[in-house]
Design a protein that fits this description.
The chain is α/β, with parallel strands linked by helices. The protein is 30% helix and 22% strand.
Length: 245
């Protein structure tokens, strides 16, 4: 089995198109989307229209939830942009997505953790930096999912594969459209990344699992220009460079 895994598109239609075009060359059996599809100062509505045509199994991310039920004053500015750009039907459809998906008996798909879409599964923040979470912390966050062979998660925008001793293989495909967090305190202190569009393919061979990670070139300068034109200079910098100063 070859399962393409995408996550955290954040309204970046150009990055999504590059990823889907690349996946089409890789002979995958299916694609799953781990959420946070639209929130961002780019192309929220157009991105959802593209995803609707693809009809992928999709997990609800925290930003997918917020654009429907959060108080406007509590929303990050990029989420306010997305809320204004999306129709009420689009926002309602995002909120109606499931918080977890059982891809198969072996594979569980979530956004953050199985019980909290706002918590990283395999990372912590320390002094505004992202570091690996302790083994026992990951176990606690998994809860009953500790018994699953594979858990797919997003939310941190960081590509990683973790084999928990006595537990699941945990795969994070990275972010399709938002390499770093551009609108949260301390974002400038997170480790520098790159502007590439990221995804992963989970590969099953018998009873063993592996992963292929991809970081794709696309027209990130055009995406950065879109963010700048929409009034989001930090997003523009993050999209163009993979870092925020």
């Amino acid at each position: 089995m070859r399962l393409a895994v995408i996550s955290d598109i954040h309204g970046n239609l150009l990055a999504l198109e590059a990823v889907i075009a690349d996946i089409d060359k890789r002979a995958v059996d299916a694609i799953v989307n781990l959420g946070d599809s639209a929130a961002g100062p780019l192309w929220p509505s157009e991105t959802l229209q593209s995803l609707e045509a693809l009809a992928l199994p999709t997990v609800r991310g925290n930003h997918d939830r917020w654009v429907w039920d959060a108080e406007t004053n509590s929303l990050p500015e990029a989420d306010r942009f997305a809320r204004a750009a999306l129709s009420s039907e689009q926002r309602r459809a995002l909120h109606a997505l499931p918080s977890i998906i059982n891809i198969s008996e072996d594979i569980l798909a979530v956004h953050g953790t199985p019980t909290d879409d706002c918590t990283f599964l395999t990372e912590e923040t320390y002094l505004d930096r992202m570091i690996p979470a302790a083994r026992d912390t990951i176990r606690d966050r998994l809860g009953a999912a500790i018994s699953r062979p594979v858990v797919l998660c997003g939310h941190s925008h960081r590509q990683s594969i973790t084999q928990l001793p006595g537990g699941p293989l945990i795969l994070n495909p990275g972010s399709v459209g938002c390499p770093v967090f551009a609108d949260i305190p301390g974002a400038s202190s997170l480790e520098p990344r790159s502007p590439h569009a990221r995804y992963a393919i989970l590969v099953q061979r018998g009873d063993r699992w592996a992963a292929e990670f991809y970081a794709l070139d696309y027209d990130w300068q055009k995406a950065a220009l879109r963010a700048k034109e929409c009034g989001f200079p930090k997003w523009a910098e993050a999209l163009a460079t993979g870092a925020v100063t």
